[in-house]
Write a structure and sequence with these properties.
The mean pLDDT is 88. By secondary structure, the chain is mostly helical.
């Protein structure tokens, strides 16, 4: 009994580091973008197409990652995909042609997508075995990794390292972290036993349904939430510049406030889920997030706009972790089937969402486009509140 608890605790800590690695790896690309654009002589349109390949690689690999995790265990997929992500990361600073960059970005995105699915699959089984909520803190470590990665490359270059050397340094760090924690992750037999116990399914069965009502519902709810996050990433700076008159160099303050609020709430979210329940967190959180967006777009003051973005981060922070946790407990459906579908649909919202909002903004206005995301969050609140617990 004690040995089992110690094994679960070690797996929990190891999984936290994997979430940190994923956030650190993907966010390290962000400061590379200006260098890539200048080095390859890209215009905004060409750069946009290359960035689309990054998301396309992730979405293409997510279902495959689920299949591999179902067969070989998520631990093996995490190791292989994380090492691939680390090895490709420096290549993003070394490619000499747009074609080479496109290939590298697609592979990098595929590796990130595979890690994302596998680490969430591992996380829900560790959470089930621990018999307490941990998913919010896991995603909190991903957010922390995102903040560190977005600053880390620039910090290393300020120390005097060349951009390529800085990227290699981060890649080595990722490899070290993954290598040190791999052995503590749940192995395939333990994971299959957990799936069988908590999902009431034979984990060795080969024929499973990928698209059931419960999976699609959670996936669509994730789509709406990820769309709102994508709106902040791609449109908040432009909104502050054009609608609130903030200068370009400070236009990123809205996303920074949103990110810090989200990271803080995720790191404390497990206590909220334990004190209340997942449904309360989702219903209340999506309501707060939607109201935050409305506050940001309906008031003309910079202070209330930033406050609205903070409320969005606080409210939305723990919604997706609750959805992932529920996906790992659906009766008769292995987590290795449910989670890839949920995350793929959700990630599609983050990828396609900015384009949808761009069309709305072009046809009407950017504030109306943001208002559309608020409506989606209210739909999440109502739909999940009315849904019967599974």
């Amino acid at each position: 009994m004690i040995a089992g608890l110690q094994k679960t605790l070690k797996a929990q800590n190891a999984t936290k580091f994997i979430f940190l690695v994923c956030g650190l790896g993907i966010s390290s690309w962000a400061p590379m973008v200006p260098y890539a654009k200048e080095r390859l002589g890209l215009n905004d349109a060409n750069l946009g197409l290359l960035l689309l390949l990054l998301g396309g690689g992730a979405i293409a690999m997510m279902p495959i990652s689920g299949i591999l995790s179902h067969r070989y265990g998520s631990r093996v997929v995490i190791l292989g995909a994380a090492l691939l992500m680390a090895l490709v990361l420096p290549l993003l600073m070394l490619t000499n042609t747009p074609v080479q960059m496109g290939i590298a970005l697609f592979i990098f995105g595929a590796a990130v997508g595979a890690v994302d699915v596998a680490m969430n699959t591992q996380g829900v089984q560790v959470e089930n075995l621990a018999e307490k909520p941990i998913m919010s803190s896991l995603h909190g470590l991903f957010s922390v990794g995102g903040l560190l990665g977005s600053l880390g490359l620039g910090f290393l270059m300020r120390l005097g390292l060349a951009p390529e050397t800085a990227a290699i340094t981060i890649a080595i760090l990722l490899i070290i972290i993954v290598s040190l924690n791999y052995k503590f992750l749940l192995d395939n037999p333990t994971e299959k036993a957990a799936i069988q116990r908590f999902s009431a399914v034979d984990a060795t069965q080969k024929k499973v349904s990928w698209f059931t009502g419960s999976i699609l519902f959670l996936g669509l709810m994730c789509f709406a939430v990820f769309l709102s996050e994508g709106a902040m990433l791609d449109w908040s700076a432009l909104f502050l510049k054009e609608s609130r008159g903030i200068t370009e160099e400070f236009s990123g303050i809205g996303y920074a406030a949103f990110s810090i609020a989200m990271a803080f709430m995720r790191l404390t979210g497990d206590k909220l889920v334990s004190k209340f329940d997942g449904k309360t967190v989702v219903v209340t959180g999506s309501l707060v997030a939607g109201l935050g967006i409305l506050l940001a777009v309906a008031t003309p003051w910079i202070g209330t706009t930033i406050l609205g973005f903070v409320l969005l981060g606080l409210g939305a922070a723990n919604i997706v972790p609750v959805f992932i946790s529920e996906g790992g407990k659906l009766k008769g459906i292995p987590a290795t089937v449910a989670i890839p579908v949920i995350t793929t649909i959700g990630y599609a919202g983050q990828l396609a969402g900015p384009a949808i909002l761009g069309f709305i903004a072009y046809s009407f206005s950017l504030p109306i486009a943001f208002g559309f995301t608020a409506i989606l969050l209210f739909i999440v609140s109502i739909s999940y509140g009315l849904r019967k617990s599974k």
